[in-house]
Design a protein that fits this description.
The structure holds two protein chains of two kinds. Chain A is an alpha+beta fold. Chain A has three domains: 1-82, OB fold (Dihydrolipoamide Acetyltransferase, E2P) (Beta Barrel); 84-213, no CATH class; 215-412, Chloramphenicol acetyltransferase-like domain (Chloramphenicol Acetyltransferase), CATH 3.30.559.10. In chain A, α4 runs parallel beside α5 (154-163). In chain A, the strands form five sheets. In chain A, strands 9-18-17-16-12-15 form a six-stranded mixed β-sheet. In chain A, strands 1-8-6-3 form a four-stranded antiparallel β-sheet, with no helix packed on it. In chain A, strands 5-4-2-7 form a four-stranded antiparallel β-sheet, with no helix packed on it. Chain A has helices spanning 86-94, 97-101, 109-112, 127-136, 154-163, 198-213, 226-243, 250-263, 307-322, 328-331, 397-412; strands at 2-6, 16-22, 29-30, 35-40, 45-49, 54-59, 66-68, 72-78, 216-224, 269-272, 275-278, 284-286, 288-290, 293-295, 298-299, 336-339, 359-373, 377-391. Chain A is globular, with a radius of gyration of 24 Å. The longest helix of chain A has 18 residues, at 226-243. In chain B, α8 (218-231) packs across α12. Chain B starts with 6 loop residues before the first strand and ends with a helix. Chain B is an alpha/beta fold. Chain B has a seven-stranded mixed β-sheet with strand order 3-2-4-5-7-6-12, with helices on both faces. Chain B has a five-stranded mixed β-sheet with strand order 9-11-10-13-14, with helices on both faces. Chain B has twelve helices and 14 strands. Chain B is globular. Chain B has two domains: 7-191, Thiamin diphosphate (ThDP)-binding fold, Pyr/PP domains (Rossmann fold); 203-332, Rossmann fold. Chain B has helices spanning 12-26, 50-54, 66-78, 97-103, 107-110, 140-143, 157-169, 218-231, 250-260, 275-287, 310-316, 320-332, and strands at 7-11, 30-34, 59-61, 82-86, 120-125, 150-152, 174-179, 187-191, 203-206, 211-215, 237-241, 244-246, 263-270, 296-300. The chains are: A alpha+beta, B alpha/beta. The interface between A and B is small, with 14 and 9 residues.
Chain lengths: 420, 333
């Protein structure tokens, strides 16, 4: 049975409280009377004991947010009295559906963490579908819906079960090649309409939302990465031996970007009606393209990491993204996005801003070009274009250009040797 | 229940007339009272000739006083007669509301079973006949909240005969609703002889697998038309005729919804607080985890009355096309 936890009244005249810190995160077990959240008011700070034993299902109010006393701040599922629907719901949330719901460019930090549980991943999954999925042990997220707008119908579950294609719930989602000749995003059949999966719907919705709310501006610089390239080439073999993963340009690039973000805090900000929210943490979202989806896992406090640390953190996120093992936390809280568009050979792109972020920066393909260098000589250099889309409500062209020049300066200062 | 083997083709008016006639013949306690039921033979000619055949003590013309019609009938019923009170149009029933709800429905309970009130109140209801503000209303939702009252609204001649007979034989008050547009529109085979159907049983008028439609009265026939049209598109819709509004046949509805997983309720009465609301609530309580789509209701608009202008009447009444589209939409959901 879910118990809604309300903002306690800490003192007779206190009318509101601020969530200072969550001591538990969704999914954590909580014992009765165990402190699970720290609340601060203008009079007092206090740890709040849990009124019931159970599992923290949902955080409604994020850290730093202030709500009136009595307002719901979290939901705890009491253990021992689960409703029928919950095992499946839990499985879905723990599994791939979390990746689905945050699939589109991450929402603004203030909207991410707590909402995950009640967000869109289960919307449209009817009670009958949940029940049948549980009974037939079918992974709802692995099903392509045939209902209106790609909704998964009860019939779809029964057919998946009959086809024996049912993966156990919470198993990693393999983008299953459709064998039934149905038109899907992975297997689009000319002359048909591909039904929208929940992920595609959310991507579409977030893209339109961002394009319609944030006035996009765009700018680009050319960066000479000859020295950086040399550094990376020299270091990559040793790195791969030590860490079991390839050393790409991404961590170097991220290192430069977080340095510039620290120097230009307005680029690490969100536009809100109340004002421009300048974020304390620098959490870098990395755009990861999956065969049928686009997700933005987040490297938290990226400015605190070395190039090596960034390489390991980003590498792990990308690897887990491809295996559909990311949790809601991995996808929440991004404040600025890095997009490695050059990986596919692009030399110029104009990305759409993730909702709630002031900037998204791309690293385009490194190409060798004849360029004029010091002393009017012509040399062959490795050049990378770096593009920036920005929310013009947050920053003007001056700041954006200065930021981008700063990124350029940092990148050009890297190599040909150094410590990772 | 008596099983009748022979059937004859009758329309709904003829079915009512024949059932009343049989009751008058078979049971001396039965009498009919209401406005114009005697010399005029009822405005739809249902009781034409009855006055001559059964005399003024059993076919009683009353003044235009609905509270008195029902009030007097209640007294007769409590003292052992089997009165069938007619309210000429359902729109006129309001003055009798107190007698029906406050007295008839409570008689058995109030007297701790010492008295019962074996009363039938027949009344034509419903629109689509250019009946305008005071000859078109649906009244079932005003009464179905009341325990102690049975409400029947059959849609076919056979169901009318079986259930009107059951109502007359029932020991407690029954409100018997006849959709006036079906009177001469709907024909069908009617069993000969004494024929009784159980009160409180819905009838699956058409079987289907993808959607359950629950309706009653005129709209059962339109829903059947729509469902049959959809059959040509391989869409399979089950149509349930509620027949008995209270008691309601929960089992038949639930069994069907558990099979099809989708429910559309269609009624002419306006949506807010209508019969559909109770069906939807019951299904949500009992079969939520079998539902694969939101429960939908296709009902009359929340306006004070049906307009006389043909455009207004057509807007109020739900066309077969609208039913078909609503069914298709829900099946495709």
């Amino acid at each position: 049975m879910p118990t809604t936890i309300k903002m306690p009244q800490l003192g007779e005249t206190v009318t509101e409280g601020t969530v200072a810190q969550w001591l538990k995160k969704p999914g954590d077990r909580i014992e009765k009377y165990e402190a699970f959240v720290e609340v601060s008011t203008d009079k007092v700070n206090a740890e709040v004991p849990a009124p019931v034993s159970g599992v923290l299902r949902e955080i409604i109010v994020n850290e730093g947010e202030t709500v009136p006393t009595g307002a719901p701040i979290a939901i705890i599922d009491e253990v021992g009295a689960p409703t029928n629907a919950e095992p499946v719901a839990d499985a879905i949330m723990a599994g791939t559906a979390t990746a689905v719901h945050t699939a589109a460019p991450a929402a603004s930090p203030s909207k991410t963490n707590g909402v995950s549980r009640s967000d869109s991943s289960l919307r449209g999954v009817s009670p009958a579908v949940r029940k049948l999925a549980r009974e037939h042990n079918v992974d709802v997220t692995a099903i392509r819906g045939t209902g209106a707008n790609g909704r998964i119908t009860a019939q779809d579950i029964l057919e998946a079960s009959r086809a024996g294609s049912a993966a156990p719930a919470a198993a990693p989602r393999a983008p299953s090649p459709p064998s039934d000749g149905r038109s899907t995003y992975m297997n689009p059949i000319p002359g048909t309409t591909v039904p929208l999966t929940q992920a595609r719907k959310i991507i579409a919705q977030r893209m339109v939302e961002s394009r319609h709310t944030a006035p996009h501006a765009w700018t680009m610089v050319e960066v000479d990465v000859t020295n950086l390239w040399a550094w990376r080439t020299r270091a990559k073999d040793a790195f791969e031996r030590e860490h079991g993963q390839k050393l790409t340009l991404l961590p170097f690039f991220m290192r430069a970007v977080v340095g510039s973000l620290a120097a230009y805090p307005l680029m690490n900000a969100s536009f809100t009606d109340a004002g421009i929210k300048v974020h304390k943490d620098i959490n870098v979202s990395i755009a990861v393209a999956l065969p049928d989806n686009l997700i933005l896992p987040v490297v938290r406090n990226a400015d605190k990491l070395s190039i090596k640390g960034l390489a390991v953190a980003a590498g792990s996120l990308i690897d887990r993204a491809r295996r559909a093992q990311l949790g809601a936390d991995d996808l929440a809280g991004g404040t600025f996005t890095v997009n490695n568009t050059g990986a596919n050979g692009s030399i110029l792109s104009a990305p759409i801003l993730p909702t709630g972020q002031a900037g998204i920066i791309t690293m385009e393909a490194v190409v060798k070009r004849p360029v004029v260098v010091t002393g009017d000589a012509i040399a062959i250099r490795s050049i990378m274009n770096v593009c920036l889309s920005l929310d013009h409500r947050v920053v003007d062209g001056g700041i954006a250009s200065a930021f981008l020049s700063d990124v350029k300066k940092r990148l050009e200062a890297m190599g040909p040797s150094g410590t990772l | 229940m008596a099983i009748a083997t022979q059937t004859r083709e009758l329309n709904n008016v003829e079915a009512v007339r024949e059932t009343l006639h049989d009751a008058l013949v078979n049971d001396d306690r039965v009498l009919i009272m209401g406005e114009d039921v005697g010399a005029r033979g009822n405005v739809f000619l249902i009781t034409k000739g009855f006055l001559e055949e059964f005399g003024p003590k059993r076919i009683i013309d009353t003044p235009l006083a609905e509270a008195s019609i029902v009030g007097v009938a209640i007294g007769m019923a409590m003292e052992g007669l089997r009165p069938i009170a007619e309210i000429q149009f359902a729109d006129f029933i309001y003055p009798a509301f107190n007698q029906i709800v406050g007295e008839a429905a409570k008689t058995r309970y109030r007297s701790n079973g010492d008295y019962t009130c074996p009363l039938v109140i027949r009344t034509p209801y419903g629109g689509g006949v250019r009946g305008a503000l005071s000859h078109s209303v649906s009244i079932e939702a005003l009464f179905y909240h009341v325990p102690g009252l049975k409400i029947l609204a059959p849609s076919t001649p056979a169901d009318i005969k079986g259930l009107l007979t059951a109502a007359i034989e029932d020991p407690d008050p029954v409100l018997f609703l006849e959709h006036k547009k079906t009177y001469r529109l709907v024909k069908g085979p009617v069993p000969e002889g004494h024929f009784v159907l159980p009160i409180g049983k819905a009838d699956v008028k058409k079987e289907g697998s993808q959607l359950t439609v629950v309706s009653y009265g005129l709209y059962v026939h339109q829903a059947l038309d729509a469902a049959r049209q959809l059959e040509t598109e391989d869409v399979s819709v089950e149509v349930i005729d509620l027949r008995s509004i209270r008691p309601m046949d929960r089992e038949t509805i639930l069994e069907s919804v558990r099979k099809t997983r989708k429910l559309l309720i269609i009624h002419e009465d306006n949506k807010f607080g209508g019969i559909g609301a109770e069906i939807a609530a019951m299904v949500a309580e009992e079969a939520l985890f079998d539902l694969d789509a939101p429960i939908k209701r296709l009902c009359g608009p929340d306006v004070p009355a049906m307009g006389y202008a043909i455009t207004l009447e057509e807007e109020f009444m739900i066309s077969t096309e609208r039913m078909r589209e609503a069914m298709r939409e829900l099946v495709n959901f």
